[in-house]
């Protein structure tokens, strides 16, 4: 049952489920880390195969190119904001790898190499502090700070039900803490009961949107509705206002 809050984190009652199953037992061959330029095609492939499995050639290829370009040139964010893409990769991804590009070629501060290996990225997640999908603050509608936002959580079908999404979420929370965030939020499709259960078991709470409020949310399709969910990252006794 959703809970209603006035955007005050002390009202988010994070119980013991916040830490339960945070580090599930999965194959030791899976490693969660920040994405590198060499991972871009695999990230695009994982994103598209997870969210748009019904697409076929040539549309699926065009979509993958669009996601690839978005990742390569999506590092530009508002001043003071943070964003990173996390990947869960198979432990053998660094062995017998084949790349195009060179260490001398740079995209931003990252090595400009792209891996031509296939299938080594098991899951992906993006976390940022850009606050595009968080309600604005005050009459001037200022961008909210201190809240990280999770999006684009996807796990390849053959790697599902192995605790990989939980590992990605745990890594995102750890990253958000290093950014000084007090809480972390996300939107979850109301019809995706499995995802809702996953986030609830990780300590996220459904936040009731005030009646008549026009809070921003992802625009996927006209008939898709979302739960806005949030989790406190520091002491439940905190009284800081989000």
UniProtKB/TrEMBL annotation:
Signal peptide: none annotated. SUPFAM superfamilies: Acyl-CoA N-acyltransferases (Nat). Residues 30-231 form the N-acetyltransferase domain. It comes from the Eukaryota. This is N-acetyltransferase domain-containing protein. It comes from Rehmannia glutinosa (Chinese foxglove).
